[in-house]
């Protein structure tokens, strides 16, 4: 299996030829309310990013749509010139409107524009990973991704992108993408309470493809469950730590990108994700989403 040790919980995973820590960081929460505009605490946001990298995290997830441009510019300000080990994953497929909506933008010209804007705002000549984000706020929607994903394959062949992934997709769309190009990851919503992708995770693990759950802590509605609190109390741990530890133990191809705008939460999450869960703990936690 692909994973190897690091000081962070979960070890590392190879996204094709690129090793990343399984404990990563999702930058979305660094933008303003509802992911629009600048953060309330600019220096605090920079501190979170710098502390993440100092702690050894080598996988940061972002998107040009966050802010828009805001999280990319924060990442650049905090971390550029980037350490060689740092792997920055991005997404394309949506713009932002004045009301904070996420209108779909998946025509070839939209995607090319977003990739070039991402390169510029991150200060890069090549992007490590671009996920083709499909579906909508309700989740994955059926339909072909061929034109959109094919545009990213073209951009990869032009040398602007190293690796490709897909996000907010159905199992059929994952298979369709694999017929068009090589994917190194799938980024879908998944956590203790939302387990629609259980079979997909196992199939991707068998193919050495990473699964990157977004909203690992419940996103805008943090996870709340009596079973989760019960296990956390028994272990003397925070519920969020238990939720992250459960994901790391769920499958070796799961990469964490929990979001936080707080260095205290970042530290708590790093320390807590390494919690060893017993079979009894896991059985109790499994009851939440089934
Ligand atoms: N592909 C997609 O469509 C998609 C969609 C959404 C998100 N994403 C990606 O997934 C990443 C993760 O999602 P997310 O950040 O929205 O949700 P999340 O990781 O599930 O949860 C983040 C929320 O949990 C809180 N939190 C974090 N640690 C905590 C702790 N120890 N105790 C209490 N609260 C804690 C954060 O608040 P504080 O700031 O106060 O810590 C924040 O409100 C994003 O950053 C983004 O990169 C992708």
What layout of secondary structure does this protein have?
Elements: E1 12-15, E2 18-21, E3 25-26, H1 42-54, E4 59-61, H2 70-79, E5 87-92, H3 108-122, E6 127-133, H4 146-157, E7 161-167, H5 171-180, E8 183-187, H6 198-206, E9 210-211, H7 226-235, H8 239-250, H9 263-272, H10 279-286
Parallel strand pairs: 3-4, 4-5, 5-6, 6-7, 7-8, 8-9
Antiparallel strand pairs: 1-2
The structure holds NADP nicotinamide-adenine-dinucleotide phosphate.
Quick summary:
With 290 residues, the protein is an alpha/beta fold.
List keywords for this structure.
290 residues, TIM Barrel, two-stranded antiparallel ribbon, 38% helix, 14% strand
Description of the structure:
This protein has helices at 42-54, 70-79, 108-122, 146-157, 171-180, 198-206, 226-235, 239-250, 263-272, 279-286, and strands spanning 12-15, 18-21, 25-26, 59-61, 87-92, 127-133, 161-167, 183-187, 210-211. The mean pLDDT is 96. The longest helix is centred in the middle third of the chain and has 15 residues, at 108-122. Helix 1 (42-54) crosses helix 2 (70-79) and helix 7 packs across helix 8. It contains 10 helices and 9 strands. The strands form 2 sheets. A 7-stranded parallel β-sheet has the order 3-4-5-6-7-8-9, with helices on one face. A two-stranded antiparallel ribbon has the order 1-2. The protein has a single domain, classed as NADP-dependent oxidoreductase domain (TIM Barrel). NADP nicotinamide-adenine-dinucleotide phosphate binds next to helix 9. This is Aryl-alcohol dehydrogenase-like predicted oxidoreductase.
């Amino acid at each position: 299996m692909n994973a190897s040790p690091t000081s962070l919980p979960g070890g590392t995973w190879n996204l094709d030829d690129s090793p990343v820590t399984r404990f990563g960081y999702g930058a979305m929460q660094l933008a303003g309310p509802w992911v629009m505009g600048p953060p309330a605490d600019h220096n605090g946001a920079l501190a979170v990013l710098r502390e993440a990298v100092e702690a050894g995290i080598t996988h940061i997830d972002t998107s040009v749509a966050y802010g828009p441009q805001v999280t990319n510019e924060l990442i650049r300000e905090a971390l550029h010139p980037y350490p060689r080990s740092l792997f920055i994953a991005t997404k394309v497929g949506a713009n932002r409107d004045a009301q904070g909506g996420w209108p779909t933008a998946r025509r070839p010209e939209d995607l090319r524009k977003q990739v070039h804007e991402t390169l510029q705002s991150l200060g890069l000549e090549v992007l490590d990973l671009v996920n083709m984000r499909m579906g909508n706020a309700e989740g994955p929607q059926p339909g072909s991704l061929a034109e959109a994903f094919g545009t990213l394959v073209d951009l990869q062949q032009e040398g602007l992108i190293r690796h490709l992934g897909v996000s907010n997709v159905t199992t059929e769309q994952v298979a369709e993408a694999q017929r068009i190009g090589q994917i190194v990851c799938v980024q879908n919503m998944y956590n203790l309470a939302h387990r629609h992708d259980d079979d997909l995770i196992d199939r991707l693990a068998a193919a050495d493809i990473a699964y990157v759950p977004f909203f690992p802590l419940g996103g805008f509605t943090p996870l709340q469950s009596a079973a989760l609190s019960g296990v956390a109390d028994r272990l003397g741990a925070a519920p969020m730590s238990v939720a992250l530890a459960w994901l790391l133990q769920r499958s070796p191809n799961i990469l964490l990108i929990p979001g936080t705008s707080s260095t205290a939460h970042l530290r708590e999450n790093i320390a807590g994700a390494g919690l060893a869960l017993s079979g009894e703990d896991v059985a109790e936690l499994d009851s939440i989403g089934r």
